[in-house]
UniProtKB/TrEMBL annotation, chain A:
GO terms for molecular function: phosphate ion binding. InterPro entries: PBP_domain (IPR024370), Phos-bd (IPR011862), Phosphate_ABC_transporter (IPR050811). GO terms for biological process: phosphate ion transport. SUPFAM superfamilies: Periplasmic binding protein-like II. Keywords: Phosphate transport, Signal, Transport. This is Phosphate-binding protein. It comes from Desulfatirhabdium butyrativorans.
From TrEMBL, chain B:
Belongs to the binding-protein-dependent transport system permease family. CysTW subfamily. The keyword Cell membrane applies. One of its GO terms (biological process) is transmembrane transport. InterPro entries: MetI-like, MetI-like_sf, Phosphate_Transport_Permease. It comes from Desulfatirhabdium butyrativorans. The chain crosses the membrane at residues 26-53, 73-104, 116-141, 153-177, 212-235, 272-294. It is a multi-pass membrane protein. One of its GO terms (cellular component) is plasma membrane. This is ABC transporter permease subunit. It is found in: Cell membrane. Residues 79-290 form the ABC transmembrane type-1 domain. Pfam families: BPD_transp_1.
Length: 279, 301
């Protein structure tokens, strides 16, 4: 156990070294803001944010080796807690903060992208369209077989997200209209795990951020509107949310520079690259 | 001259005695510290659970329904699941442990096969839990879904099988070490009495290792109850009382992991501490029962 842990640590250190110092410098406009700054930015929270944060961190650390940016996941709840308790500099959330959270910790929010939440099924599932009512009935356990919504004669395997998930919060509020989820539904802990679960089970149904939907799962057309980023941006697809970075009070210069970078044209490119829409 | 040598010996003796005294003190301090940590953990859990007791919300936690959106915070399904999963995993792993140890000390006491088996067991102890979970998600879960055609494959069954593989090597190694000692003591006598290797194992070595059997079970149980990752990855995590082996279930540990990230002022968050407390009590109960049983068993002899 100890030995394998040691090797795993070695591996992680190697990867960090390669990421940090391996690539050549590529300084450009938005990165100039980091000149003269050094230190560490710690980031934790929403899992939907991670690809964007990682790419930004890589670009910044490549150009300015004295800056270290550590990106962790944990989910929206962890993001609020950690930044609130001062354990990290930026806490990412996949939903707007509640009034209590803002009041308790004095948090400041920086929205930077729009993400939709799509209902996903296995690519081989013949069902491609569902109404909002059907989705609600499926998730509450009223409809239990695919046959009842025009699919195969097979049981529906429900997958939902954990209690702290921002994706779940948005889906529950905007797609399920705050309806209940059957207690027999499987619970997975991240967008990635949801994709793995649904892509492996031809009778599965779940939901994930549109940015995470790729060829391994099929996004369901909801009430005639396809779950694409375009439809999310023009407002026709209703199940959307903003992605936020949050700081405790005013951010310190380095953290401010990071946030500005995410909001800069280069940051916007990264946001687009991962399937999200810049605001 | 003799005086001098005598005093040197005395000095050496005194030095040894002093060293032993220090060793004893350090060990005592270590033991005291461990005990203090356990007590501290318990008191911290009780302290965090106090609001549940004082505000009469214990009933809300000791309920059968977990549905935080509708203000149901029952953790009993998870408690039941943890118990069931542990017992089931032990039901698979314990006979296998006995079997493997019987092979190692009875049938194949020498040779390449024994060395390979031992190497395999040692190797298995070194595999991180997450690897077991990962392989289960991609191999065992689809297999269960395909073979039994009930449910998603993420189930009590999947968790139980994975967990039994996880705890098996630890249990085998503990029992193996004990059997090694017993073997050194009894093998010759048993052979002189004309026992075959298998007979020795069954009638001499295993009974001689009765206490070790209990320790083996306790250790396996500790790992099974405490394991979070495997149940989180393959059990499905639906907060319900399982009615069949193929139901999706959530253990106390997985529950804590899933809920810990919620808003720290919500009732759901507080219920996590209750879950922790019950996990602690559950383990203590298991331990107490088994130790009591071991003691009373010994006095029968």
């Amino acid at each position: 156990m100890k030995r394998s842990l040691f090797w795993m640590c070695c591996g992680v250190v190697m990867v960090l070294l390669v990421l940090g110092f391996g690539a050549g410098p590529a300084v450009s406009g938005a990165l100039d803001a980091f000149k003269g700054l050094e230190g560490t930015v710690q980031i934790a929270g929403g899992t939907a944010h991670i690809p964007v944060m990682n790419d930004a961190a890589k670009a910044i650390m490549t150009a300015h080796p004295k800056i270290r940016i550590l990106v962790e996941g944990g989910g929206t709840g962890i993001g609020v807690q950690k930044v609130g308790e001062g354990l990290v500099d930026i806490g990412n959330t996949g939903r707007a903060l509640t009034d209590q959270e803002v009041a308790k910790y004095g948090l400041k929010s920086f929205p930077f992208a729009l993400d939709g939440v799509a209902v996903v099924v296995h690519p081989s599932n013949p069902v491609s369209n569902l109404t909002a009512k059907q989705v609600q009935d499926i998730f509450s356990g009223v409809i239990t077989r695919w046959k009842d919504v025009g699919g195969n004669d097979a049981p529906i395997h429900l997958f939902t997200r954990d209690e702290a998930s921002g994706t779940r919060e948005v889906f529950w509020e905007k797609a399920l209209k705050k309806g209940s989820v059957a207690p027999s539904a499987n619970v997975v802990g991240s967008n990635g795990a949801m994709k793995v679960a649904v892509s492996q089970d031809k009778d599965a149904i779940g939901y994930a951020g549109i940015g995470h939907v790729d060829a391994s799962v099929k996004g369901i057309v909801l009430d005639g509107v396809a779950p694409t980023q375009e439809n999310a941006l023009n407002g026709s697809y209703p199940v959307t949310r903003k992605l936020y970075m949050n700081t405790k009070g005013e951010p310190k210069p380095l953290v401010k520079a990071f946030i500005d970078y995410i909001l800069s044209p280069e940051g916007i490119e990264i946001v687009k690259k991962h399937g999200y829409l810049p605001l | 001259m003799t005086d001098h040598r005598f005093s040197a010996e005395a000095q050496a003796l005194r030095r040894t005695a002093r060293r032993e005294l220090w060793i004893e003190r350090i060990l005592l301090a270590a033991a005291g510290l461990s005990a203090a940590v356990v007590v501290a953990i318990f008191s911290m859990l009780v302290w965090f659970c106090l609001p549940l007791f004082t505000e009469h919300r214990l009933g809300a936690v000791l309920a059968w329904r977990w549905d935080p959106i509708h203000q149901h915070f029952g953790i009993l399904p998870m408690l039941i699941t943890s118990c069931m999963l542990t017992i089931l995993a032990l039901c698979i792993a314990f006979p296998l442990t006995i079997g493997i140890c019987s092979l190692l000390h009875g049938t194949i006491r020498n040779g390449v096969l024994r060395r390979m088996l031992l190497f395999l067991v040692h190797f298995m102890t070194g595999i991180p839990t997450v690897i077991y979970g990962f392989v289960s998600v991609f191999v065992l879960v689809p297999l269960l879904r395909w073979v039994f055609e009930t449910g998603t494959g993420f189930s009590l069954m999947a968790a139980c099988l994975t967990l039994s593989v996880l705890i098996l090597p630890t249990m085998v190694l503990v029992l193996h070490a004990e059997l090694d000692q017993a073997e050194a003591r009894y093998r010759l006598t048993a052979e002189a009495l004309g026992f075959s290797a298998e007979q020795t194992m069954r009638s001499v070595l295993l009974p001689a290792c009765r206490r070790a059997l209990i320790v083996t079970v306790l250790l396996g149980m500790g790992r099974a109850v405490g394991d979070t990752l495997v149940s989180l990855m393959v059990a499905g995590n639906a907060a319900q009382v399982p009615h069949s082996l193929f139901d999706s279930v959530r253990t106390l540990t997985a529950h804590i992991a899933l809920v810990l990230a919620t808003d720290s002022h919500s009732m759901a968050y507080q219920s996590v501490f209750a879950a922790g407390l019950f996990l602690f009590l559950l383990m203590s109960c298991f331990q107490a029962v088994l130790r009591f049983w071991a003691k009373s068993g010994a006095s029968f002899r």
